[in-house]
Predict the structure of Acyl-CoA dehydrogenase family protein.
Amino acid sequence: MGFDLDEDQKQLRDLAHDFAEKEIRPKAPFHDETGDWPKELLHKAYDLGLVNVHIPAEYGGLGLGALNGCILEEEMGWGCTGIATAITANSLAQAPVILAGSTEQKKKWLTPFSSEHLISAYAVTEPGAGSDVAAIQTTAVRKGDKYVLNGQKMWITGAGHANWFFVLAKTDKEAGHKGMSAFVVPRDVKGLSVGKKENNMGQRASDTRGMAFEDVEIDAANLLGKEGDGFVIAMKAFDHTRPLVAAAGVGLARAAMENAVLYAAERKAFGRPIWQHEGVGFMIADMASDIEAARLLTWKAAHQIDNNKRNTLNAAYAKRFTADMAMRVAIDAVQVFGGNGFNKEYPAEKLMRDAKIFQIYEGTSQIQRVIIARELFAK
Ligand code: CO8
Ligand code: FAD
């Protein structure tokens, strides 16, 4: 792998950048302020082919590799990570079906995305268990050719608009992570209810909700893999999606740095542009070099997927480093802007609020360190 993008990748980057600049950025403040779901933007992204990009060609998708997905994601994250999350959440829910679904299941659940703008959501976290996935309480009990689901999910991105959900549930409550199974649950089933949109600190364009399952019956054919495979399916999906999330974090940090550079060149204190004061210039130098480092980690984790190598360790490196880096860069951008950094008329404030979630969702920064330490000591 070289460090230069090929012509196709440059085109992809430019397409996504153009969309981010001309469509996402102008509307981002409105969606941040109101929390309105960016339906029109999602439709436009769909029409441009920027959504569902990882669905294999034989199921009607673009079959885009992980590295290309990261290139796309960085640009959309540069535009607005709230809107980028709303757009990309489909990929997270689709990943387990791509990885573990049978041909029939892939045809049934993935192919419709090619002809219609549909939404899918990934429902693993519960009110009582987020980091500790094996501690979830939702159950799925086999009854003839059906499974009956009971339980609750929390913080599910896109839940208010999803046509179907990837759901992790326990088919054997006594067997820990080996008793977990993975299902596709259509939205229109009896007993499934979705809560109100949560009023979050950042990424407010994205939709996050709780869900409840009360004697929800689904076809047994919606089980992905075998009973007991669910935990590993969910983990393998994270290996694929953590680099994408990291790429969006790189995009956010890049936006914060660019704003800081422009401001620090313009704003004067003590008779010179503030970047010429070492305290400010060094902050921006750190931003720039950390962004480069984060992108390289992210691309390496993606490159491993594209070369059929297990990337658990590198996905965790990328997610941890990028999340912490994006938060640090966004905080420093506020500092560069001084009082204006604390004000909603300037861009740094929103970027700082949006950055925080990178250290929480798709596995917190602590959990990434847990994974890194385990992987290192397992060797
Ligand atoms: N690949 C294959 N197998 C794996 C993997 C993997 N990556 N990880 C673990 N396993 C296997 C282990 O080898 C082990 O196998 P065995 O039973 O044979 O020994 C088994 O799974 C159990 O593994 P662990 O002992 O490591 O399991 P633990 O219970 O200790 O927990 C974790 C492991 C890593 C802490 C796990 O619980 C975890 O990842 N927690 C974080 C949860 C998380 O990331 N949640 C995110 C929810 S989704 C979300 O936030 C979406 C945000 C919206 C984003 C939208 C844009 C895309
Ligand atoms: P907890 O697990 O209770 O953790 C609380 C604190 O303890 C954290 O700081 C954590 O790092 C720390 N901690 C826990 N265990 C350890 C440990 N072993 N070592 C060190 N520190 C530890 N989930 C989905 O399934 N699908 C989604 O689409 C989705 N989207 C989300 C969108 C948003 C906006 C938010 C806020 C969350 C979303 N989540 C989603 C859930 C998200 O993945 C969880 O919030 C996250 O994994 C943390 O789980 P928790 O909130 O239960 O925190």
The beta strands are 120-123, 139-143, 146-157, 164-170, 180-186, 192-194, 208-219, 223-224, 268-269, 272-273. The pocket of flavin-adenine dinucleotide (ligand 2) is lined by residues 122-125, 130-131, 155-157, 200, 208, 357, 360-361, 363-364, 366-367, 370 (CB under 6 Å).
